[in-house]
Amino acid sequence: MTTGESSVVIDDMDVKEEAGAATNQVSEDDHPQYLPQPADLGFCLLHDMDQNQVLMWLRRQCSAGSYGYVVTPNIDHVQRLYTLSQQSSLVKLYRGAALSLCDSRILQKLLAVTGHKAPAVVTGSGLTAQMFESFLTPRDNIVIIGGSDRLISRLREMYPQLQIAHRNPTMGFINKPDEIESLVAFCHDARSDFIFLAVGSPQQELLAERLGNVLERGTALCIGASLHFIVGEEQRAPAWMQNLSCEWLYRLLVNPRRLAGRYFSNFCHLWPLAKRLRQVSRADQAAV
Question: Phi/psi of residue 223, each to 5°?
């Protein structure tokens, strides 16, 4: 599947898509014995965990022999979610994740100024990069759904020690029941430990939820375009721009035609989103 846009209808609305070796960086003391109580924004949950804690949770999740999926909401995802009811399919997908991580420094700051405890930022691209660099081992059964054959070939060249199974679905696969069934069977037959879903949102979240109907173990991670950063097909913003919460500006300058409309829409929703987050914060404080 290409990285271009596609459209999926959810609740009558169109949504455009858009550790073994790691233990030298992760210690038992860094990881809580259980997931921390997530912040409940109504339309999604957010767990406050740093990247090392997430890696330890992923390894324990693998050992536990149960299935779950990980989402990393950013400001674009939240824009889609906050106007929907908790009964909408898209909101249920995000709230149903085993782990939900803040993937946006802008969202982090918005939460802070609206009275919420700002969670740690764990980006999908940063988490995926560390997993391939120092977390995944030759014993892990790794499945990647999405990405071109050339991208996967490059990834296998970079990490020849890893066992990577790959399937690239066709455009619009999420609306093709037979192809969904084939992808689920592929992940099941591979006895997946970690499944990287690189097919864009909300397709990857939909697929992650459907995998849970069949798989009894393994963790699916909704990673978007993260693999493109790993193999060098796309570049992340310099660290100083990331620290200033300006990675969006870097991406806009690199790809204005694709991102200008999306970012303008995000900007227009910031104020009503802030009002909604403030309402949630006040309701939480009143309930205490």
Answer: -115, 0
Q: How far is CA 162 from CA 66, 130, 185, in A?
A: 22, 14, 21
* Per-residue pLDDT at 4: 41
| Strand order through the sheet with 99-100 | 99-100, 67-71, 218-222, 194-197, 141-145, 163-167
Mutual angle of helices 177-189 and 203-211, in 10-degree steps: 60
Query: Encoding tokens for residue 63?
Result: 């050992």
pLDDT at 12 over 70: no
| Helical (H) or strand (E) element with 16 | strand 13-16
Q: Are 103 and 122 contacting, i.e. CB atoms less than 8 angstroms apart?
A: yes
Report the phi/psi class of residue 155: left, alpha or beta, with left for phi > 0 and alpha for psi in -120 to 50.
alpha
Q: Which residue has the tokens 């806009």?
A: 252
Q: Rounded to an integer, what distance in angstroms lies between the CA atom of residue 252 and that of residue 232? A: 18
* Six-digit token string for 197: 């879903």
- pLDDT digits 0-9 by tens, 184-199: 999 999 999 999 999 9
Q: How many residues does the chain have?
A: 288
User: What's at 10, amino acid-wise?
Assistant: I
Instruction: Identify the three-state secondary structure at position 164.
Output: strand
User: Could you tell me whether strands 67-71 and 99-100 are parallel, antiparallel, or unpaired per DSSP bridges?
Assistant: parallel
If you average pLDDT over residues 167-195, what whole number do you get?
97
